[in-house]
Amino acid sequence: MADSGPASFFTRANAILRKNLTYQKRYIWSNVRLIMIPLYLCIVLVCIQALFDSQVNNSLDNQCGCKCIDKTGEGQCEMVCGVEYSTRDQGVFCAIPNPQPWPPLMLIPRPQNRAVDSNLIDGSCRGRNSCPVTILVTGNNQSIGAALSRNFLRRSFTMNSFDILSGLAHNVLATTYKGSATSYLDAAIVSDLSIYNIQPRCPPNSTFQFSIGQSPLNFTKEMRCVQGLNLWRNNSREINHEIFRGYQKGNSDETISEIAAAYDLLDTNKTNFNVSIWYNATYMDDSGNKPPKLLRVPRLVSLVANAYLQYLQGPRHKILFEFVKEMPKQETKLRLDIASLIGPIFFTWVILLLFPVILNSLVYEKQQRLRMIMKMHGLGDGPYWMISYVYFLAISTLYVVCLMIFGSAIGLKFFRLNDYSFQFIFYFLYINLQISLAFLISSAFSKVETASVAAYIYVFGSGLLGSTLFQFLIEDLSFPRGWIFVLEMYPGFSLFRGLYELSQCAFHGNLSGRDGMKWRDFSYSGMDEVFSIIVVEWFVSITAAYYIDKVSSAGKNPFKISPSPQRLSLQKQVSAVSIEMEKLDVTQECVKAEKLMLEPSTSHAIVCDDLKKVYPGRDGNPPKMAVRGLSLAVPSGECFGMLGPNGAGKTSFINMMTGLVKPTSGSAFVHGLEICKDMDRVYTSMGVCPQHDLLWENLTGREHLLFYGRLKNLKGSDLNQAVEESLKSVNLIHGGVADKPAGKYSGGMKRRLSVAISLIGSPKVVYMDEPSTGLDPASRMNLWTVIKRAKTHTAIILTTHSMEEAEFLCDRLGIFVDGRLQCIGNPKVIKGRYGGSYVFTMTTALENEKAVEMLIQDVSPNAKKLYHIAGTQKFEISKEEVRISEVFQAVEKAKSSFKVFAWGLADTTLEDVFIKVARTEAFNVFS
């Protein structure tokens, strides 16, 4: 027995959760194959990386060089490897126990970007690439500043050819080449660019060449003179303003006026040395992403320190800054992680592959109307949304966790180097967005096939556009960053951007032997804006999806706030319909319904008062009145049958009572609850057997009944007992049928299961739309017995085309034609009222047909011929004009005059009454 009252929120949530888990169990191997997709793609990346390692990373050209040397003189050589046997390209991979020292260099602006002082220098120097290098100086004491400025630069060039580094240390060397990642090979030394010697004045054609390093890391460089200009500024604010004004604009290299460095001597005096140094740390590396690891600051510190020493002790006292060098290092290998570089497109596809799965599941329930049938049996929006969302979230979370485990286990640096918690939070946020988008987009599709095609276009299109277009725009520093933010609002691009940043961090981390993405890089990497976009879009999409679903399920247009003019005009048309004279029985039913509407409580389960439904006209056609003012009262314990031809309005009435469509006007109550306002509460006590079976093909009959039984608040032993009894009642218990998937059922078995679902849990109101369609006679009779037994505590509204079914099951019948009731009452009363005649049938030879007609005229002068073919004639005889004995006497007398092959006299059937009423009303409508 069902518990008193409707099922609670958590009971219904438990029901759909169990159903989903059972459904998931049926698809266990499909889920395994889905989860294996990330593993397959990760293996593909590992294979690509292995091929790249063999052809590039581990090639002889990218290893420390080796040479075969005959050390013993016996003609047998021994392979020896080291810097001295390597080419210049190979040498960087060798072990370097004693790194090469490099002269310290100062970073200066390129000639076309150097500052120009309007009072001293002609701006045309930029065209000749001869502008001086500007150093700004300020402090509390201008005289000390001037003295130190004079000591910054050496006025003549000196060189010690025996000790190159010592000779170069007497001069201020500079380069326009930004710092390298390391100083094992200084980029300024090994490149083709010149080294500059900064002097107060440059002699004409002053260049000098020098060689540095040992083979194979030996380089010959050209050193050119560049003028250095020391300028005093009154305070640090002026320097800040000048630096800010000359800063690089946007992402281009064009500047207004860039200085090399600036010094604030503060309160420096002969006993106190206190200085602040401005230097440019904003130059980007070759990829345009990060500042170089090695900044050329030491020469700036040495410059001012040496000038202060000479200020105190005289020009002969110097602090020589001879060289800088790296720490010794072991032998290294080229570590280009190609798998991380191409990873974003693969992992975009991997994560987005969940989207079609979720979308197809939601659209399938919509296409098969399973969501609506669940709602009709009491599943509210709250439990459905909560469990469905958590269900998809759990599957998606397991999916991305498996992706991270697979990727780490097979050695992909993309996963191993980046912080696991950072990766998980990013994936977790995005799968939440993906689920909410699936809920939102599902409202736009009604077919699984269409949704699937659109979803896969989105999946593969996002990956391809991300790798070919969006990545190019990210790396193009001239493209406005604001537009990058706008593009990231497309969910596929926000996912790709996050994966791109993770891949770049993994690539550079593996290359330099450092870690990848960490939480400390959150703001610096741009991931903060990606996270923000994902969170905001998730909130907007989940809110919009819930609103659209809530409004659409109520039969409204989610994009219309007020009633449309068309709907208002339809309501006026309905109110303007003239009231026609009703039949007496229909009028009495209307009066009864009106009285019941005024009572605070009633034993009647269903009360309808002047219920109307008008469908808007389309393609130039006028509006269609499907239901024309239906008034009806059905008490508990009664089965009310609705008869009528196709298109009479029966289905529209059932759809209004089950919440599929909203009535145009009028009102209806189910146990005191109005269907327009309290439909969610009505659903908790309602059962529905739709015209077409709405079943999950992969759930068994028993699992269907367990699910719907839980929605009706059945628990424990009561639930199991109710399921067993339902299966037995509809003959689905034998031969293991109850535990077979519903997709393997025959049409009759599905029909019986639908009836069992509508009756489980003893609902207070049940709607059955042609419940016995497709059943054999034995199954039909068994089903009728079940329905008849169930109506003792339930109000049932049943539509059927079977007159035999209507007479067997229904306590009252209503014949529905052209949107209104034409008659109402129990079957016997209706047959007595509309069937006051006999049907006489006789078959004779053709030449005797006229004699048969004369015979009937003698018996009943007002008889009507209904049928005539090949000697068989059928007549309708009024019961008021004839007695049965008179008919028998007339037939016996006729047999003596001509041969009678067959004859019969039958009372009017319900089918005859139905045809008579339907034809009469149809004639009235079209006449």
Automatic annotation (TrEMBL):
Where would you find the membrane-spanning parts of this chain?
34-52, 341-363, 384-412, 424-441, 453-474
* Family membership: Belongs to the ABC transporter superfamily. ABCA family. CPR flippase (TC 3.A.1.211) subfamily.
Record the organism. Thlaspi arvense (Field penny-cress)
Q: Tell me a Gene Ontology molecular-function term this record carries.
A: ATP binding
Name it.
Answer: ABC transporter domain-containing protein
Membrane topology for this entry?
A: Multi-pass membrane protein
Please name the CDD domains in this protein's record: ABC_subfamily_A
Q: Where in the cell is it found?
A: Membrane
Lineage, top-rank taxon, reads Eukaryota
Family annotation (InterPro entries): AAA+_ATPase, ABC2_TM, ABC_transporter-like_ATP-bd, ABC_transporter-like_CS, ABCA, P-loop_NTPase
Q: Which GO terms describe its cellular component?
A: membrane
Q: What is its main location?
A: membrane
Name the UniProt key words of this record, in alphabetical order: ATP-binding, Membrane, Nucleotide-binding, Transmembrane, Transmembrane helix
Write one Pfam family the protein is assigned to: ABC2_membrane_3
Please list the residue ranges annotated as the ABC transporter domain. 606-843
